[in-house]
Amino acid sequence: MLPARAQLHAKAPDEVSALLARLSSEPIDESLLYAIERQPSDDRIVPALEAEFDRRTEKSEKQAIAVTLLRLGNKSKVYFEFLAGYARTAVEDRTPFCLKVDSNGEAVAGQFSAEFENWCAQNNKDPKAVGGLQFTVYLKDVLALADVQDPRASELFRKGLDSPNPVVVSASVLGLARLGDVAAIPLIAKTSERLPSARLAIAMALPWYSHPD
What ranges in the chain are assigned the alpha helix state H? Predict the structure, then answer.
């Protein structure tokens, strides 16, 4: 019988093999990607993930794989730009925010703002579809980039502070906080004054900063 330490070393490659074999399952399971990230360094992991990224066509699945590759230390511009491209679209969108905001800066659930409704009418857009884009798609796209904690994203997150969309602003603050971008704190403070509807979400993201400011 093998000594305990030898058994552990013998088991590790088998566990990696089993995880990588599951990688081709449909749809991809993000918990599987987390499990792969926790494995000891293995030369098979990154090539398998790169191949799976190329094979997949679903945006959210490719985003999840790109996040894992970057967190594993693969700094390829291909994976960073795949995530940054979608986040950039969210950050640069200057469509008025969909929800009506009251005098206290609180969003009024279920009511579109007049500015947003006018914009949709002028541009022949479905308000519900655009609202879903602002709330769901843009949030996921900016958070995916925030998840990798890549310093290359800092400038993009700073631009996100100028968004009229409090969802994009809050996700950008989270990205800056996870990067520990202390120099951005005054910019975040100005954004909080400019966009009262984002204050609560901004406050919830700030604890990611370890800096006393």
Answer: 4-22, 30-37, 45-55, 59-71, 77-92, 114-122, 127-132, 138-147, 154-160, 166-179, 185-194, 199-205
Residue 12 has pLDDT above 80, yes or no: no
Can you state the angle between helices 138-147 and 59-71, rounded to 10 degrees? 20
pTM of the model: 0.86
d(CA 24, CA 22): 5
| Maximum alpha-carbon separation in the chain | 76
Q: How far apart are CA 86 and CA 68, in angstroms?
A: 17
Give the count of beta carbons closer than 10 Å to the beta carbon of residue 35. Answer: 15
The C-alpha atoms of residue 157 and residue 3 are separated, in whole angstroms, by: 51
The two tokens of residue 129 are 């579809």
